[in-house]
Amino acid sequence: MMKKYIYIMVIGLMLSACADSENTNTVISVLEDMTETDFVAIPDAKEIITQFGYEKNLWSSATFRYGRINSLIHNSRDLISLGQEKALLGNELERRRLVANFNKDVEDILNKPKDSSTYNHSSIWLPIVEELKVLQKDSISKCKLYVFSDLQENTRWFSVFRVADIHLLESQRDALVKMFLGKSQGIMPSKFIEVIVVYQPKTIAEDELFQKLKQLYVQLFSSLGISIKFTANLNSKI
């Protein structure tokens, strides 16, 4: 009888170890548009932190990336991570301390002083493409890319402030999609990456333009094979 109990215990420990060894890494990336100073929806640390799910699984690994969108294509990224541990062998008090420190680092990054510069241009699409290329290098982790932006591109190759480009957006979207996809070489379809655009228009005009850009992005990401959603804030059901 004792051997039976020992056998059951060993099997239980093996199953627990296997469960702990599964990859449960969550990657959250935030791109924040700094080309306007009065966006209603901005990154909130508490809402972002809940996306890691540590209230349900204390032992999983997490990676947080943060970058700002402005007139430049290439901007620096803040990066922090917390490795996975095995619950069977871990110290829960120490793990809670590490998770608390990780959450504090996320909060500090999101709350650091904003750049008060005025930007004459706004590069949105290429920074998104650049970030997707980084995220797709991890082929097994669940990745969410939050884009806090009105998506109003204002660059040499496309601008919502040029009449000819607005005509493309409204009447020749297929040609515009082809133009955007031409700048997206190297992006591969992925079932592990989800893009969430967070934006809340303040006026009817802003809403009308955003709806047109939303349709463009839906078509773009359908072609890329990556999921995309839109929400006014992270409290919304998306």
Task: Give a verbal description of the structure.
- Residues 1-19 form the signal peptide.
- This is Lipoprotein.
- Keywords: Signal.
- The structure is a single chain.
- This protein has 238 residues and is of the alpha/beta class.
- The protein has a single domain, classed as 3-Layer(aba) Sandwich (Rossmann fold), CATH 3.40.50.
- The protein has seven helices and six strands, in the order H-E-H-E-E-H-H-E-H-H-E-H-E.
- It has a six-stranded mixed beta sheet, with helices on both faces.
- The protein is globular and about 60 Å long.
Index terms:
single chain, 238 residues, alpha/beta, Rossmann fold, six-stranded mixed β-sheet, 40% helix, globular, disordered N terminus
What does the average pLDDT come to? 86
The total domain count is 1
The major sheet is characterized as: 6 strands, mixed
Spatial strand arrangement across the major sheet? 3-2-1-4-5-6
**Percent of residues in beta strands:** 15-25%
Helix share of residues?
A: 25-40%
Strand pairing plus helix content: what structural class?
Answer: alpha/beta
The 3D shape can be described as globular
Name of the top-level CATH class: Alpha Beta
Rounded to an integer, what's the Rg over CA atoms?
21 Å
Q: Helix-strand pattern, N to C?
A: HEHEEHHEHHEHE
Stretches where pLDDT is under 50 for at least 5 consecutive residues are 2-21
N-to-C span: 53 Å
**Count the strands?**
6
CATH topology: Rossmann fold
Task: Work out the helix count.
Answer: 7
CATH architecture: 3-Layer(aba) Sandwich
